[in-house]
C-alpha cells in the first residue's frame, strides 16, 4: 500500500476502521463508523413537520421537503440537503470568489503594554515589537520606494474626454508618453514620480499628486493647450538633440580622419628614424667587430713576437689541417712571409747539398784516378 505524506498509513490493526490525515497541527485519526450518516445534511422529518404545523407565517413560507418514502434508502444522494462536505466545498468556493474580488491588506497588531490594560501605552515595548517584527525596516523601504501607483490606461480614460481623441493621436496613442506629458503639464517634480512600463509610480507622501492628477475639473480648459505646448517643446528638444548629435559625430569623424592622417605621417617618420637608427647601430656593431678582431690579432702577434720557432710550429699545425677556419685564415696571411722564407731556405739547403755532393763526387773521382 502506497503511503503519502499527507495520508499516513494507520496501524495494521486499525487500518480497517480508521484513516489518518496530517493537518498543520499534527496527525488526526478519523473513524469510519457512521461516517456517512454524520456527513449527511438532511433535515429530519420531525423538524419538517414542526415547521409545517407552526402558526408563524415566516416558518410556513419556508420550503419544506416532503417526507421521505420508505422505499428510498435513508442515505440516498437524491435527498435535499446534500452532505456536510458538499456544503463546505460550496462555502469555500464562495469565500474564494469573494476574496478574489477584493483587495487584501495585512494588518500587524502590536500590544500596547504587557499587562493588557486599557489606556496604557508602553513606548519601549511597542518600539521593540516594531523593530523585531521588521515594521521599521518596512517603513524605511516604503519611504524610499514607490507605493502609490496608477495605470496609464486609467489616466488616458480620465483625460481623453477632456483633450479629445485628435490630440491623443498626436502622441501616437502612446499611453506612457501621454501620461508623461500630463505630469509635465501639471508641473510635477521629476523626483516625485517614476514612469514604468504600464504604470505611473509616486513616491511616499506624494499621494496629493495623484489626487491632483485625477482632479481634471480644475484645469479642464488649459489642459489641451498645455499638452500641445509640451508636444511642441518635446519635438523641438528632439530636433535640437539630433542636430547636436549630428554635429558631434561630424566633429568626431573629422577628428578621426585627422588623427588617421597624423598617425600615417607619424608612422612614416618613425620608420625613417628607425631605419637610420638601425643603420647607425649596424655601423657601430661592424666597427666594434673590426676593432675586436684587430685587437685580437695584435694580441696574438704580440704574444708570438721574438719566437720564430713557435711561429713555425703554429704554421705547421695550420698547414696540417685539411680545412682552416675563417677566423684563422689571417694567421696564414700573417705567417706567409715566414712560409716563403722557409721555402727559400729549403731550396738553398737542397742546392747546397747538391753542390756539396757534386764536389765530393768530383773529389772522390780524382782521388781514384
UniProtKB/TrEMBL annotation:
PROSITE patterns cross-referenced by the UniProt entry: MYOSIN_MOTOR
Top-rank lineage group of the source organism: Eukaryota
Location of the Myosin motor domain: 1-215
Any one GO biological process: actin filament organization
SUPFAM superfamilies the record matches: P-loop containing nucleoside triphosphate hydrolases
Start and end residues of each stretch annotated as Disordered: 63-83
InterPro entries linked to this entry: Kinesin_motor_dom_sf, Myosin_head_motor_dom-like, P-loop_NTPase
Biased composition (Low complexity): 67-78
Nucleotide-binding listed as a keyword: yes
CC per GO annotation: cytoplasm; membrane; myosin complex
Entry keyword set: Actin-binding, ATP-binding, Motor protein, Myosin, Nucleotide-binding
Residue segments, region Actin-binding: 92-114
Keyword ATP-binding: yes
Signal peptide: none
GO MF term set: actin filament binding; ATP binding; microfilament motor activity
Protein family according to the UniProt entry: Belongs to the TRAFAC class myosin-kinesin ATPase superfamily. Myosin family.
Name the UniProt record assigns to this protein: Myosin motor domain-containing protein
Species this protein is from: Aphanomyces astaci
Amino acid at each position: 500500500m502506497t503511503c503519502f505524506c499527507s495520508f499516513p498509513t494507520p496501524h495494521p490493526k486499525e487500518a480497517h476502521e480508521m484513516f489518518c490525515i496530517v493537518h498543520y497541527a499534527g496527525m488526526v485519526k478519523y473513524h469510519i463508523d457512521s461516517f456517512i450518516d454524520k456527513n449527511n445534511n438532511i433535515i429530519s422529518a420531525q423538524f419538517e413537520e414542526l415547521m409545517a404545523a407552526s402558526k408563524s407565517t415566516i416558518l410556513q413560507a419556508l420550503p419544506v421537503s416532503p417526507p421521505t418514502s420508505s422505499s428510498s434508502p435513508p442515505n440516498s444522494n437524491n435527498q435535499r440537503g446534500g452532505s456536510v462536505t458538499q456544503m463546505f466545498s460550496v462555502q469555500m468556493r464562495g469565500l474564494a470568489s469573494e476574496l478574489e474580488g477584493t483587495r487584501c491588506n495585512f494588518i500587524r497588531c502590536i500590544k500596547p503594554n504587557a499587562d493588557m490594560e486599557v489606556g496604557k501605552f508602553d513606548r519601549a515595548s511597542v518600539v521593540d515589537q516594531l523593530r523585531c517584527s521588521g515594521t521599521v525596516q518596512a517603513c524605511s523601504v516604503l519611504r524610499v520606494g514607490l507605493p502609490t501607483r496608477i495605470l496609464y490606461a486609467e489616466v488616458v480614460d480620465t483625460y481623453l474626454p477632456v483633450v479629445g481623441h485628435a490630440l491623443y493621436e498626436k502622441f501616437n496613442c502612446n499611453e506612457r508618453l501621454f501620461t508623461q506629458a500630463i505630469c509635465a503639464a501639471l508641473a510635477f517634480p521629476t523626483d516625485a514620480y517614476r514612469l514604468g512600463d504600464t504604470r505611473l509610480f509616486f513616491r511616499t507622501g506624494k499621494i496629493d499628486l495623484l489626487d491632483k492628477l485625477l482632479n481634471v475639473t480644475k484645469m479642464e480648459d488649459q489642459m489641451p493647450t498645455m499638452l500641445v505646448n509640451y508636444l511642441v517643446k518635446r519635438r523641438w528638444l528632439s530636433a535640437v538633440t539630433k542636430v547636436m548629435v549630428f554635429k558631434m559625430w561630424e566633429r568626431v569623424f573629422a577628428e578621426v580622419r585627422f588623427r588617421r592622417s597624423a598617425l600615417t605621417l607619424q608612422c612614416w617618420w618613425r620608420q625613417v628614424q628607425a631605419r637610420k637608427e638601425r643603420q647607425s647601430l649596424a655601423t657601430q656593431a661592424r666597427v666594434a667587430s673590426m676593432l675586436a678582431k684587430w685587437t685580437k690579432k695584435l694580441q696574438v702577434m704580440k704574444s708570438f713576437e721574438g719566437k720564430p720557432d713557435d711561429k713555425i710550429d703554429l704554421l705547421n699545425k695550420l698547414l696540417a689541417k685539411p680545412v682552416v677556419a675563417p677566423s684563422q685564415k689571417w694567421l696564414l696571411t700573417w705567417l706567409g712571409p715566414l712560409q716563403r722564407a722557409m721555402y727559400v731556405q729549403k731550396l738553398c739547403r737542397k742546392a747546397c747539398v747538391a753542390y756539396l755532393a757534386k764536389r765530393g763526387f768530383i773529389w772522390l773521382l780524382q782521388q781514384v784516378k
